[in-house]
User: What shape does this take?
Amino acid sequence: MASSESTGVKFEPEEDNFLQRHVAFFDRNKDGIVYPSETFQGFRAIGCGYLLSAFASLFINMGLSSKTRPGKGFSLSFPIEVKNIHLAKHGSDSGVYDKDGRFVGSKFEEIFAKHSHTHPDALTGKELQELLDSNKEASDRKGAIAAYTEWKILHYLCKDKNGLLHKDTVRAVYDGSLFEKLEKQTAAKKHP
Assistant: This one.
């Protein structure tokens, strides 16, 4: 299959597929394929340092590439096909994305109904750990590590001065709009 870059067509994520929209931010050239270099660029764009960006690009692309490329051989370039990102959903997650990558509002609300004890629309670090512990599946080490990494990076990047991770921020990470906002904030800091 030719990439959309070679055909001149830009990849557009499906409007109702929040998981595709989430991942599409990292598809820097909009060809429907995310390579480790693009993951690195995306993490740098949202304000992550070199080490975290390098680690994330390797961890994410090596972990997801083969899952998003069914029927295709192994590739040392570790591409992630955005249209198939739903095939790489891991266990021990919140269930906010369904099996096709669509947003499940009731599961999103459940995160805060069950775990935000201190503030109704935010999670403390302790409450976030409670969420991770409650979602952890007994024999799913890889999924638990993936969930832990995702949530801890989100908390690190987006907690407020009181250490709270707000509901609107979490909602924005699910649809990918948070990444665009962080990219603009990072660019503004570099070029005030």
Q: What stands out?
A: The CA atoms of residues 43 and 98 lie 25 Å apart. The longest strand covers residues 33-34. The first helix runs from residue 4 to 7.
